[in-house]
Amino acid sequence: MPTTTTAAPAAPAPRPLGAVLTTETRLFLREPGSLFWILVFPAVLLTILGLVPSFREADDGLGGRRVVDIYVPVAVLLAMIMAGLQAMPPVLTGYRERGILRRMSATPVRPSALLLAQITLHGAAALGSAVLVMAVGRAGFGVRLPEQLPGYALSLLLAVACVLALGAAVCALAPTTKAATAVGSVAYLLMMFTAGVWVPVQVMPGLLRTVVEFTPFGAASQALDQAASGSWPGWTHLAVMAVWTAVLGALSARLFRWE
């Protein structure tokens, strides 16, 4: 009597995006420099500032708050700037320069999956650093956690989207890794100033403060500070971040070259 055999069902093929994300995560974790500057350095900077005695005293010029309170959102934004402008552009332009993106276009894995994986990784690292900064501020120096949590979360997500769109625009405009590093470094210094790393936005002179508030990270710094103090972030600041994200995202999508 003839017998029939049924072939065992083939194991499902791994999804291209999942496989790319797994591979890129492993490569990202092998870069201690990027991990330090994104995840650790902002918390270290906040710790150094918090150890200055005068920075832990209430200041009437800051509405009764302390300098260390003001610098928590600044340190949060610093991690985002590191991720979007210093870490991500050289990786993507390096892949393009070495022809990796061109070769990927001939496989089931599209180059866009690599771009999405890089955005996901660097965005997650920036958000993880934000959590670490807030934990250090709270545990080490008694900084209050954000009182307007939904507004703070919205501001945080908009700021991450904005910096990643800016990083993607740098990748689109820079033809080589060296060019991406140079352009990213210039943008990095400008964004650090507007985020208030050297002078908090809240204490900038009137006209300068008004101009800075219309930059991506000037608006983000104000929105995060307002939410941390218990107020809903100003709609103008949220709109500024949303517009910058849309404009930079559209620019990078239009100009990005896979080879």
TrEMBL record:
- UniProt entry keywords in alphabetical sequence: Antibiotic resistance, Cell membrane, Membrane, Transmembrane, Transmembrane helix, Transport
For whether the record's keyword set contains Transport, the answer is yes
Note the topology in the membrane: Multi-pass membrane protein
Its GO CC terms are: ATP-binding cassette (ABC) transporter complex
Any one GO MF annotation of this record: ABC-type transporter activity
Report the sequence similarity comment from the record.
Belongs to the ABC-2 integral membrane protein family.
Protein name in UniProt = Transport permease protein
Q: Which organism is it from?
A: Streptomyces nitrosporeus
